[in-house]
């Protein structure tokens, strides 16, 4: 199954709302960072991409028609080459507002006890046993490679974010690219994808409060167990 939509926007730019929107619009299941919780063994393909290798894309995206958020956004160029007919969506947020949100959520380190707890429970739960590798890919590919180990440097990160936005605009053909903000709702997205506007309101998901609830150990473990 080929990807029809590729998200090039960073996490905390409305990517989970976009995931839900694409699924409502009939683009099948959308691959988001949280999908790694559902099928941790697919981490092997992200590890290959991180090393500059070409993974088995059919297995990586089996069952999905779109992909947004990290780590997919990091590899939008590779995904464009693999799926030349796909459309690219750059979910966008003002850079300073993005950093304000990201610095309180995805850029924060995990609590020191988090990983040992996951490793221990992973002895009894196969899916959870993949979490150290999943987190390793995020740290290596996103924090170290993309963000150059400077995720806590506000000025650097804001400049890097803006550079990424401009790079996407330069490298994606204009007729295949939509730059959008979640607050714009359905209209630009539906026009770009050539589908009718749904009656339902544009979805919301994964605000800062919800994010922190998700990474509480008890809730996190429940997510893994539920999806194993």
Q: Count the helices. How many?
A: 12
Radius of gyration: 17 Å
**Overall domain count:** 1
The global form is globular
Q: List how many beta strands DSSP finds.
A: 5
**Secondary-structure class:** alpha/beta
CATH architecture classification name: 3-Layer(aba) Sandwich
CATH class assignment:
Alpha Beta
CATH names the topology as: Rossmann fold
Placed side by side, the strands forming the largest sheet appear as: 2-3-1-4-5
- Can you give the helix content as a percent range? 40-55%
C-alpha termini separation: 23 Å
Proportion of β residues? 5-15%
Q: Quote the average pLDDT.
A: 90
**H and E string:** EHEHHHEHEHHHHEHHH
Name the poorly predicted regions.
Answer: none
The main pleated sheet reads as: 5 strands, parallel
User: Which homologous superfamily in CATH is the superfamily?
Assistant: P-loop containing nucleotide triphosphate hydrolases
What can you see in these coordinates?
- With 228 residues, this protein is an alpha/beta fold.
- It has one domain: P-loop containing nucleotide triphosphate hydrolases (Rossmann fold, 3-Layer(aba) Sandwich), CATH 3.40.50.
- 48% of the residues lie in helices and 8% in strands.
- It is built from twelve helices and five strands.
- The chain has a five-stranded parallel β-sheet with strand order 2-3-1-4-5, sandwiched between helices.
- Helix 3 packs parallel to helix 8 and helix 6 (95-102) crosses helix 9 (154-171).
- 34% of the residues are buried.
- The model has no long low-confidence stretch (mean pLDDT 90).
